[in-house]
Structure formats: C-alpha cells, structure tokens
Design brief:
alpha+beta; Aminopeptidase; 30% helix; globular; binds coenzyme A
Length: 155
C-alpha cells in the first residue's frame, strides 16, 4: 500500500489525507481499517489484479443514514482501465444485500473529473453540490465544494 500509492501526491491530490511520509503511517492506517471492520464501523477492501496479484488500490464503505458512503483510490499506473467502476459496482451489490440499505453515496471534489466519471460509469447519479464540504489538504486548508453522487436500490 505504501509503495503502490499511499506516498504518491498524484493519488492523494483530492483525498482528505496527505501522502504518507513513511511506512509506519501506512501501518497505522491498516490497523484502523482492521479495528473499524471488527466494530462494523467501516469496511475497506484492497484491490488486486487478476493476472499478477499486484495490490493496486482500495475501496471503503462507511455506514451512514440508510446506507453507505464510499471512498476509493487506485495506483496511477492502473488509472483508465475501468477497474474502479467495476469495484464500485461490486461494493454496491454487496451493500444492497443488506435489507436496511436503500442508498449508497460518494462525495468527490468538483474538480475530480476522474472520480466523477468512475461513479457515473458505475451507475451513480450526481444529486447536488455540497458547498464547502470537505477539506482536501493537498490543495488548500479551506473546505471545498464537492459533488454528491448516489445510487439507490429503486433506481
Ligand atoms: C478516481 C479513480 C479511482 C478512477 O478509477 P479508474 O479505474 O481509473 O476509472 P476509469 O478507468 O473508469 O476512468 C475514469 C475517468 O478517469 C479519467 N482517466 C482515464 N485514464 C486516466 C489517466 N491515465 N490519468 C488521469 N485520468 C484518467 C477519464 O476521464 C476516465 O473517464 P472516461 O472513461 O469517461 O474517459 C482514479 O482516477 C484514482 O484513483 N484517482 C485518485 C484517487 C481519487 O481521487 N479517488 C477518489 C476520491 S473521491
């Protein structure tokens, strides 16, 4: 995870965390993923290629009202292959196996065109602009406008 993407400023540009400076930071994040999963407070999957078994990214689902909110990323060399729409689709399918889930959402910076496209290709609909919603510290310390994307069970 550290080598593949966690230290890469191109990957983290529109994320809520700065590139990791060392592997200890990455290990601490993995510990938090494991704890969150045990407590059912968040679910993070690592993504691997079928052919080489290389770890290329991750996708996480956090419970929120009536469903889950998604976060996701891929190592740069694997952008543009349609991997994330496929992963998003798989997580949405998993989410809707839970009877209480009626919607899955994701927020992306309004300048993060690649993320918006990945969500649209996975069937998500752009619902609204969330004004001054998330701080993306690699851009600035001010909260930034984001698009909210959703997919609902009844769509
Ligand atoms: C967002 C992200 C996960 C998309 O995953 P992906 O598997 O590359 O998605 P796709 O292959 O469907 O490509 C989506 C769009 O990315 C853009 N794209 C494609 N190749 C690209 C490349 N090499 N470099 C930059 N953008 C590219 C295209 O606009 C594409 O849309 P299109 O298919 O309509 O042309 C990936 O770009 C990424 O990890 N970005 C950094 C982390 C991030 O911003 N995560 C989302 C936070 S909300």
């Amino acid at each position: 995870m550290f080598t593949a993407y966690a230290q890469d400023p191109a990957v983290t540009r529109y994320l809520m965390w700065r590139p990791h400076a060392n592997i200890a930071e990455t290990e601490a994040v993995i510990d938090r993923f494991l704890t969150a999963w045990e407590r059912q407070e968040g679910f993070c999957w690592f993504l691997f290629t079928n052919d080489t078994d290389e770890m290329i990214g991750s996708i996480a689902a956090r419970p929120e009202n009536n469903g889950f909110n998604l976060g996701f990323l891929l190592a740069c060399p694997h952008w543009g292959n349609g991997y994330m729409p496929e992963a998003i689709g798989a997580v949405v399918e998993w989410a809707f196996t839970e009877p209480w889930v009626s919607r899955v959402s994701a927020a992306c910076d309004i300048e993060n065109y690649s993320s918006a496209r990945a969500l649209e290709k996975a069937g998500f609909v752009r619902e609204r602009i969330l004004h001054e919603f998330l701080v993306h510290p690699n851009i600035s310390s001010a909260p930034r406008n984001c698009f909210e994307y959703t997919i609902t069970r009844s769509l």
